Amino acid sequence: MALIKEESEDIKIEDAITAKQEDAEEQTDLIALKEETQELDETEEKDHCEKHHDFVTEKHNRSQTKKKVSLQKRAQKTGSRSRFTCKQCAKSFSQHEHLKIHMRIHTGEKPFTCQQCGKSFDQKRAFTVHMKIHTDSTFTCQQCGKCYSRKENLRYHMRVHTGEKPFICKHCGKGFTRRGSLESHVRIHTGVKPYTCSQCGRSFDQLGNLNVHMRIHTGENPFSCPQCEKSFSRKGNLEVHMRIHTGESPYTCQLCGISFTQKGNLNIHMRLHTGEKPFTCQLCTKSFTYRRDLKRHLQIHSGKKSQRRPVWQEKVELKEKVWKKKMHNQPREPQPYEDCQAQSIQEYE
Prior knowledge:
single chain, Double Stranded RNA Binding Domain, disordered C terminus
């Protein structure tokens, strides 16, 4: 639920900020023009009281000329409003500062950090909106009690309960609760990757993936284990690691009862039941259950001598064979092979 709340804060934030910045610039121009006009009018009135009519007329003509020049300058400024262009996505801005703010989307820079929850933002406006979560949550979901600082965010959240998915992918028909989620999904079909690492040039389809990738260059591991002080770049990796300490294996095979610490390991294990062999040799069309077996098989074609496998790996494979034999002999009462740990079935790539 927290993920839904946080993701909603970033919806269309760039467009909203850019629009406000452009509006603010136009308002500044209008205010400056009004002040200039007012100042000139006051000067004319003063001159009218102190000097002769002919002299006042001459001043008035000069003031009108100044007004025309000023308006021409304003028009020139407006005409060159989009002279700063992003080299990565070709989006244009009227001020260099606006371009700098926009570039944070591509670089992943987030200079505004919440001191209460640690979440960072690339724009001050987004940070300000986020802070209302901690200080002013006035919109509450009547079904689960979750609070939001904006009515729009509550409306998005309610789709979780109603199942409404108004944004449909035209390529595959998949539905989404948010337009931003649909836009991210469409990149799977189009192959567009607008977020590029400034250090190595690798591109990503989502900003969050770029932010995580940047930790490779910075060495940042913000998620630390409280029991062994080991650090991780991803929160999900820490959660999986914690199961080593807790002994938790939440993913259980419904056919044989074996449990795993990771869902991916359960999916790999299920191939034993389904007989799926997704890894096929392109030279002889022989198929394998695990990628490691395909790699070992390819050495036959290349003429390379296969390296001896670790003893523990041989034991695991032996237990798998024993278990398969039991399954074959007792198909109606499948039994788990003995002492199989969650980490035994892993795909070594």
